[in-house]
């Protein structure tokens, strides 16, 4: 199942609205890069685990 990370679930001063979805490892990698470059976090195993544990299942979109 695809996973997603939605910055709107974590309000910040920047009022970020980015949503990242894909396979779990893709989302963790992209969300970590985003957290570092946009939100000023430090890339660490703890940050990656925090991101991984907060991922949600993406609901399939039906046409």
Describe this structure in words.
The chain has one domain. Helix 1 (24-37) crosses helix 2. It contains two helices and three strands. The chain has helices at residues 24-37, 45-54; strands spanning 3-6, 19-22, 56-57. The model has no long low-confidence stretch (mean pLDDT 92). A three-stranded antiparallel sheet has the order 2-1-3, covered by helices on one side. The protein is of the alpha+beta class and 63 residues long.
Fraction of residues in helix: 25-40%
Q: Flag low-confidence runs.
A: none
Order of helices and strands: EEHHE
Q: Biggest sheet, open or closed, and with what strands and sense? A: 3 strands, antiparallel
- Counted beta strands: 3
Question: What percentage of the residues does DSSP assign to strands (E)?
Answer: 15-25%
Q: Specify the oligomeric state.
A: single chain
Quick summary:
With 63 residues, the protein is an alpha+beta fold.
Tags for this entry?
16% strand
Describe the SSE topology.
Layout: E1 3-6, E2 19-22, H1 24-37, H2 45-54, E3 56-57
Helix pairs in contact: 1-2
